[in-house]
Design a protein that fits this description.
Number of strands: 2
Distance between the termini: 34 Å
InterPro entries: FAM180
Protein name: Family with sequence similarity 180 member A
Low-confidence stretches: 16-26
Keywords: Signal
Organism: Sphenodon punctatus (Tuatara)
Mean pLDDT: 79
Pfam families: FAM180
Number of domains: 1
Structural class: mainly alpha
Radius of gyration: 16 Å
Helix content: 55-70%
Shape: globular
């Protein structure tokens, strides 16, 4: 239950964070900008889930309502009612076409995040959190050396998000 509360707090905080347009942004999730003609999501170029606080609540419900990760590493929402929502299509596209799933890609993302200048864009923040959720799942399902590798990746993603939150907090004007 603690990690779910942490995720909700991370999403809420990021929804209120100022994005500083001065920084040149590196591409953290290049697959978000590629059009996948073979998928049913070809109309969704660079989908974003959290555009309002209601969207953040809905994303939390998706995570709380349990996810199913199949043998092909396809992520789906177990709750049929939630899965039928329009935002569930965006969630599916992000989880199955955008976030990295291999340990190599996740380490590459962590390395880019560790040198990222400025505050993450909302879509990069949410994708990093979803990658962290996926990494936590893989950590729980792994054993031995693989478990250590996945756990290290999880910690690196958490550090990157923590740094982003601290940086965005320091960027806010004091009233």
């Amino acid at each position: 239950m603690r990690w779910k509360t942490l995720m909700l707090l991370l999403f809420y905080y990021n929804a209120h964070a100022n994005v500083n347009p001065r920084w040149r942004r590196a591409m953290l999730f290049p697959s978000a900008h590629r059009l996948k003609r073979s998928s049913s999501f070809s109309a969704l170029v660079n989908p974003v889930l959290q555009k309002s606080l209601d969207d953040v609540d809905l994303l939390y419900e998706f995570l709380l309502g349990e996810l199913e990760i199949g043998k092909e590493l396809r992520i789906s929402i177990k709750d049929e009612e939630l899965a039928s929502l329009r935002k569930a299509t965006d969630f599916d596209a992000i989880c199955n076409n955008i976030i990295p799933k291999s340990i190599t890609e996740i380490r590459r993302l962590s390395a880019r995040l560790s040198t990222y200048p400025g505050v993450l864009k909302n879509e990069d923040f949410e994708r990093t959190v979803l990658t962290m959720v996926y990494t936590a799942y893989r950590t729980a399902r792994s054993k031995g050396h693989q478990k250590d590798t996945w756990a290290e990746s999880f910690v690196n993603l958490f550090r990157a998000l923590k740094h982003d939150l601290m940086f965005s907090y320091s960027e806010k004007p004091s009233y």
